[in-house]
Amino acid sequence: MNATASRTVASTDGTGIACTVTGSGPAVVFVDGALCHRAFGPDAPTARAPAAAHPPPGPPPRPVR
Predict the structure, then answer these.
(1) The dihedral of CA 46, 31, 36, 18: what is its sign?
(2) Which of these, 21, 43, 45, 47, has the minimum number of CB atoms within 10 Å of its CB?
């Protein structure tokens, strides 16, 4: 499972924009319609697919003794 972080960022005019960050690869932005929520809108399954290909980095491997 990928780690997910929800946060708010500010646009250039100061408007707060809620976003969810998942995975570690290149940024991909999905924008759902005005009456949708990012967690369960029609793009939620589509947005999870690229994140699965770029999981967040895990702890370093343990040395073999």
Answers:
(1) positive
(2) 45
Total residues found in the chain within this entry: 65
Question: Containing H/E element for 7?
Answer: strand 4-10
* Residue 23 neighbours by CB distance under 10 Å: 19
Other CB atoms within a 10 A radius of the CB of residue 4 amount to 13
pTM of the model: 0.51
Name 52's Cβ contacts closer than 8 Å, sequence gap at least 6. Answer: 2, 23
Across the range 15-35, mean pLDDT stands at 79
